[in-house]
Amino acid sequence: MTVRLRDIDESNFYQVLAMRRPAGEDYVAPNSVSLAEAWLYRNDHTVHPLAIYDDDVLVGFVMTHDDRSQRVCDIWRILIPEVYVNHGYGSRAIELLGQRAQAAGQVRLRLSYVPGNAMAEHVYAKAGFTATGEIDEGEIVMERLL
User: Which of 57, 68, 88, 124 is least crowded, fewest Cβ atoms below 10 Å from its Cβ?
Assistant: First the structure.
């Protein structure tokens, strides 16, 4: 498995847009919403939508937001289509995001999940995230030091 993160551009935009959440999963916004939000904040240069690849196969989507004042990389969205769930792609993407954040001088990764999303909670805890005790728009906030 050679997982890497790639910018979203004209070569993969429509593939990323066509990705769907696993059946019955409504915890993560569709990629169309994420890409629209990234466009809204494009002039801030703090929101980064990325495609997750295993070699040349698109296996997921992730979007981050840099909070430069706090030196935090907030993992805003992760979407892995059902066919690629439980293959380690989300975990590997989180590791790669941690490396990128650390190289950019950030000191923490931050994310949140909807209560009841046991899979997300498991993956994040396994990746070293711990709950902060904060609730953000109804979601449980977790952090990991870099």
Answer: 57
